[in-house]
Each structure stands twice: as structure tokens, then as C-alpha cells.
Specification:
Length: 244
């Protein structure tokens, strides 16, 4: 028996994407998107917003051609800063492998360009696999979909409404061109996404005396082991730590 799913189309100019929506057993859905962004030009986070506003759970992975010190050993680039700020502003997560995914003739240019950005998925792991005779290594992702972090029992959210109004005025057109039913549906989707994005970028949430949900022991053990190996590799550059 196959996995129940259907194709989803997201218009984008600054990156290529292929997406499906999977029907989960608990009557929920998750959007899964494969992304490739060419090396030149800047990624448009508004296009990413359309993807991540489409569902309560989203997994987007691929070659972003973006570098940042939080997931890449070498230098950062502008796209890396754009994605890093966008992820933090929206409370998403980046899942990246320990090993570089791109290998150059110069060691200094090795980089982690392939990673995942996830929404409402708390437990995940990524491993780069040295399996192909090419400059990019494939990445194996493992996600625990049933372990979504709950909404805090008590929280305080504050919104900067001046910032909200400024974002709305810049990102939502006042009079979109409507010539068909599809134009109406697209305008509604863009409007809803714009509102959600503006709220996320303008609000800060602070938990108050909440109990943090513990991850399963096998996940926390893997995270601890991964962090220890990463520290050893960064401090010593000892080759076995690179592939451990």
C-alpha cells in the first residue's frame, strides 16, 4: 500500500522546487518540498513564506547554496544570512549534517550547502553519505513526525503593531488584478500568508513557567553524541571525527 499524497505547486523564481502533501494517519497533513537554488542571485524569502504558510507542518530540504556559521564550517554568504534570519524570525529549525555536502579541490572551499528547514518538527537528524563520485554528497534525513512540540501552557506574546503595519504595507498589494477564480484563490492565499508572516515578524513570545517537553532518550543521546563529535572535529580536524 502506497503513501497517500498529492502534488502541490508553488510558484517561485529564485529557486526550483518540487512539492507534495502527505496525508498522515492522524488525519493531519505535512508538506514536503525539495529545493534547489542556483549559485547566483538572492533567494526571496517571500517565496519561502508561501511554502511554509501552506501547512501546519512543513519539511523543506535540498541544495540552498547558502552558507552560515551556524551550519557551515567556512565563510558565510548573503543568502546564508537571509535564511538564518528568516528561520529565526519565524521560529523554524535548520537540520544540517555534521559533514560538508560540497567538496572542492581546495579544502578551504568545502561547504555544507544541503540542509533542511522544518516547521513544527522537533526531532530530526541529517547525515551526509559519501556514496557518489561527484562534488556533492547525498544527505539522509530522518524525521520523527509524531514528536511535535506542544504550544506552551502559559505564554505571553507581544506584538509591535507599528512594525506589523509597515510589513503589511510593503508586502501586500492593495488592489491585486483579478480576472478569474484562480486569481481570487491566489490573492486570498497571498493575503493570508502575508498576515501570518507579518504577525510572526512583529511578535515575540515568552514562555512563563512552562514545562519543556523532553525528547525521547534515543534522540537526546544522538544529539549529545553528535555535538561531542562536532566539537572534537572543529578543535582537532582529526579525519576519523569527520566521518564518525
Amino acid at each position: 500500500m502506497g503513501i497517500a499524497h498529492h502534488e502541490v505547486n508553488f510558484d517561485s523564481i529564485t529557486f526550483e522546487n518540487s512539492a507534495i502533501c502527505i496525508d498522515l494517519p492522524n488525519k493531519k497533513q505535512i508538506t514536503v518540498v525539495s529545493i534547489y537554488r542556483p549559485p547566483h542571485g538572492l533567494i526571496d524569502t517571500a517565496e519561502l513564506n508561501r511554502i511554509f504558510c501552506s501547512n501546519s507542518q512543513v519539511i523543506s530540504f535540498g541544495d540552498f547554496n547558502a552558507k552560515h556559521s551556524s551550519w557551515n564550517i567556512g565563510r558565510s554568504n548573503r543568502n546564508g544570512h537571509l535564511i538564518y534570519d528568516w528561520v529565526n524570525n519565524n521560529n523554524f529549525s535548520i537540520i544540517d549534517p555534521l559533514q560538508p555536502t560540497y567538496f572542492s579541490n581546495s579544502y578551504a572551499l568545502n561547504a555544507t550547502l544541503d540542509f533542511a528547514v522544518v516547521k513544527n518538527t522537533s526531532a530530526a537528524e541529517a547525515v551526509a553519505i559519501n556514496a557518489l563520485p561527484r562534488d556533492h554528497n547525498p544527505v539522509w534525513f530522518e524525521f520523527l513526525l509524531s514528536n511535535v512540540l506542544p504550544i506552551p501552557l502559559r505564554s505571553l506574546t507581544t506584538t509591535n503593531w507599528n512594525r506589523f503595519q509597515d510589513i503589511i504595507s510593503r508586502n501586500i498589494p492593495g488592489n491585486p488584478t483579478i480576472n478569474s477564480i484562480r486569481d481570487i484563490e491566489e490573492a486570498i492565499a497571498k493575503f493570508e500568508c502575508g498576515i501570518n508572516t507579518a504577525i510572526n515578524l512583529s511578535s515575540k513570545t515568552k514562555s512563563i513557567n512552562t514545562v519543556h517537553r523532553k525528547l525521547p532518550p534515543f534522540i537526546t543521546n544522538k544529539i549529545t553524541h553528535r555535538n561531542n563529535i562536532r566539537k572534537r572535529w572543529q578543535h582537532t580536524r582529526y579525519p576519523p571525527y569527520k566521518t564518525a
